[in-house]
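Per your request, structure below.
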């Protein structure tokens, strides 16, 4: 399994968490301001995708040298931002 492929597979799920208006707001957020999503979207990512004991995603992050859940969710948020920015 590939870390990026696993992350890319969750983008539709993350996208479904946003209204159209909020997704556009997320898209227009500057990269340096993505920290604002740490406690909302980031918490959802950590609770639903990283913390479960059987999390393949968490295992892949650890295999790639990223061990802190906050760093994992920040990485996902940045990649998701790039995905959204290029999609809409």
């Amino acid at each position: 399994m590939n870390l990026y492929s696993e992350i890319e597979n969750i983008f539709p799920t993350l996208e479904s968490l946003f209204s159209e208006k909020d997704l556009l707001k997320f898209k227009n957020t500057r990269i340096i301001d993505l920290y604002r999503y740490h406690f909302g979207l980031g918490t959802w990512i950590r609770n639903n995708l990283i913390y479960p004991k059987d999390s393949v995603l968490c295992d892949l992050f650890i295999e790639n040298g990223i061990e802190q859940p906050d760093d994992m969710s920040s990485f996902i948020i940045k990649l998701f931002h790039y995905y959204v920015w290029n999609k809409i």
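The radius of gyration is 12 Å.

Regards,
D.
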